[in-house]
Amino acid sequence: MNSNQLNIILGISLSLIPYFILAYIPVWDQLRYSKRTAVLSGLACIAANILSVSLIIAIFPDWDKVRVVHSLFFLLVYIVVFLINVKAEAPKLLFIALLVKSYADFVVSMAKYLEVNFTVNWLNQVYIKTSYSFYFNLFQLLMLTCTYFLIWAFFRKKITKVVQTNNKAWNYIWVVPLIYFIIYVAFSAMDTDLIQTWQFLLFNLVAFLGFYLIYFIVIEMLEQSEKNAILSENNRMMNQQLVLQKNYYQMFGESIDNIRKSEHDLRHHLNHVKSLVENDKRDKAQDYIGKIIDTQPSLNKVVFCHNDTINALVGYYADLCQREEIELELALSVPERLTIDDVDLCVIFGNLLENAVEASRKITKGKKHIFVASQTSGNKLLITADNTYEEALRVKNGTYLSSKRKNAAGIGLASITAVAKKYGGQAFFKAENQKFQASIILKTEA
User: Fold this and answer.
1) Rounded to whole angstroms, how far apart are CA atoms 361 and 368?
2) Listed range (23-27, 100-104, 148-152, 157-161) with the worst mean pLDDT
């Protein structure tokens, strides 16, 4: 293996491996197949690229005539492999792939600029246009060393987070990095004399930084849009909770009054029972005792656990389920005091119960059943909810879509997930055998 072949292997590896890693950072937990499959498919693409370049250079000495076509072909191959390996929406994956491509193009163009200037101005040699020369690879490595960590952090902290959002804008924003790619292709055909000018350097820097500023602004807008949607849902839940708590305390007060009245009347009931027993009218005494028991007021309808906030919310849905003939089974254990904010508790329990009731209303045949349970275990609050459903649920790439908004993720489930993450926990959702299941884990201590 000669030095030219080694330079080709090193150059293509530098032009691909760092960018494969970047592309998979935001979607590493959304792979359609195993991680091993993703790695092997990437290595196969790199090997095919190296082999094809070596063969083309051997057959066509004037490599530049086919270089652009070859690059476009393999770009399509990489994108297709990326789309196959990751179970996310195509527009999101296109945005990530083209975003990575824009960074790769910047590194290549800067390496080419440095190579030309170093050869002409430092070595005082005539620059001969070649592919993957030693100096080109050296300057590629230098550019990656200087910039890769910053771009890696950008993908890790910003892109990973924003791909979790659901917004119609995803259908269009992938066009922005596509425009950068088109500009790069147009300018990559520049003459060597133009590549070594300071204007080329300035254009490269301004174009790259300008486009990445646009990406940052777009990402911030997407994140803010998602936050606004969740905030709106939380405000709705909070307003509902204020009304429910008012009704709850009113019902609780009425129940206490009824119990006091019942205690006041108990002496008269006992005297009457005593009279029936003394007159040997035991059957009538038993019937009377039964009537007393049936008419005794209870707190069961207003107290479901030790937490008044949950009592108010659950009481509303318990009454609603009773009116609409939906079987509601509860096994709630929520402490009176938690480090979890009441509003966040309402977001979780409110959305779970609201979604369950909506699904039950649509059932035309079969049992309408909702089960909600919670318990504390160590420093965690565990919440589970199951409900039957009839209509087919719409799922896209593992995300349950809203029944109210076309092709948009359910805000309720997104709000639950956001609250779970806020308290260092997790939320899991699963639907099978006409039963929707939700499991939420929250840490009750910081």
Assistant:
1) 8
2) 157-161
Cβ pair 402, 347 in contact under 8 A: no
- Measured between alpha carbons, how far is 106 from 102 in angstroms, rounded to an integer? 6
Here the contacts of 155-161 (C-beta below 8 Å, separation 24 or greater) are 155/22, 155/25, 155/26, 156/25, 156/26, 158/216, 158/219, 159/25, 159/26, 159/96, 159/99, 159/219, 160/25, 160/26, 161/223
Looking from the CA of 148 toward its CB, the CA atoms found within 13 Å total 16
Q: Is the pTM of this model over 0.70?
A: no
Whole-Å CA distances, 15 to 46, 49, 90, 278: 9, 11, 24, 102
- CA dist 310 and 304 (Å) reads 8
Domains, the chain, ordered by start: 3-196 (no CATH), 233-265+300-443 (3.30.565.10)
Here the tokens at position 135 are 């100096």
End-to-end CA gap in the chain: 59
DSSP one-letter code for 394: P
Q: For the residues 418-430, what does the mean pLDDT come to?
A: 87
Strand order in the sheet with 369-377: 327-331, 369-377, 380-388, 435-443, 426-432
Cα(418)–Cα(223) distance, rounded to whole angstroms?
13
Count CB neighbours of 69 within 10 A. 10
Residue 101, Cβ density class (10 Å: 0-12 exposed, 13-18 middle, ≥19 buried): buried
* Rounded-to-integer distance, Cα 160 and Cα 50, Å: 30
Do you know the residue count of the chain? 446
pLDDT attached to residue 367: 85
Using alpha carbons only, give the angle 297, 298, 302 rounded to the nearest 5 degrees.
Answer: 130
**What is the CB neighbour count within 10 angstroms for residue 183?**
15
* Phi, psi for 440 (deg, rounded to 5): -130, 135
- CB-based contacts of 279: which residues, under 8 Å, 6+ apart? none
Q: How confident is the model over 58-98, as pLDDT tens digits?
A: 777 666 667 778 888 888 999 999 999 998 888 889 999 99
How far are the Cα atoms of 12, 57, 319, 399 from residue 127, in angstroms, in the given order? 21, 19, 83, 54
